[in-house]
Amino acid sequence: MRLAGKVILVTGSCTGIGKAIAQRCVAEGARVLIHGLESDWGEALVQELGPDKAVFAHADLAHAETPNQLVDLVLQTFGRLDAVVNNAAMVVSSNIQTTDLAFFRRVLDVNTVAPFALIQAALPHLTKTNGCVLNIGSVNAWSGEPNLLAYSVSKGALMTLTRNLGDTLFREFGVRVNQINPGWVLTENEAQRKQEQGQPSNWYETVSPLIAPAGRILWPAEMAAAAVYWLSDESGPISGQVVDLEQYPLIGRNPPKH
Questions:
Q1: N or C: which end of the chain has fewer CB within 10 A?
Q2: Is 151 known to be catalytic?
Q3: InterPro entries in the record, alphabetically (predicted)?
Q4: CA max distance for the chain
Q5: Domains of the chain and any CATH numbers
Q6: Tens-place pLDDT, residues 137-162
């Protein structure tokens, strides 16, 4: 039980990586706050994990009051807060032609500003428990794809936030802040998104070996397994670090030989 007794708030945890993290946290002995916009899925996950181990909050992170509401709910339900996982994000396609200012601001609000605001709201309580923050970024933070402009910029900003707060909050409050950058992960939303773009239902079975040397893309459970290390006491005093979780090197990568 690597997370025994801990209480962890996981945003965007009704599906995908966030759901896998919440499930793994409970399996490791933690209690969790599930958050998302999909009420049916959120309530179903609470029933799966056990009402004594999970509580669900339906809330839009773009609203200024949401971070405080989430922190208040987790404290009212479980009496403490040991970790925040900033996982929720708008994963949306856009480029220089299709990214208007309103859209850009919305993406930044959800993907970058909301994690900052949640850290602010949670900090007094994380200080009491020598807690931590785990931000879920993306390998797109390093530059991103042409059609993921706003999303990539938001994740790049989140990465800088992690490194900055990972230093200052640990020095001043004993609160660690780290980040994992998943590569291409087979979440429910990603599977649906590709089908909406015209791909066959089994598109993930025929991904190029250049992108997926393993013959498949990553699974949410693999991201959750990595998350546990950063949420547990095993990671010790490590703070301000960003780790890429992909199956090939992002820099200096060579195409496969034929």
A1: C
A2: yes
A3: NAD(P)-bd_dom_sf (IPR036291), Sc_DH/Rdtase_CS (IPR020904), SDR_fam (IPR002347)
A4: 59
A5: 7-183+218-245 (3.40.50.720)
A6: 999 999 988 899 999 999 999 999 99
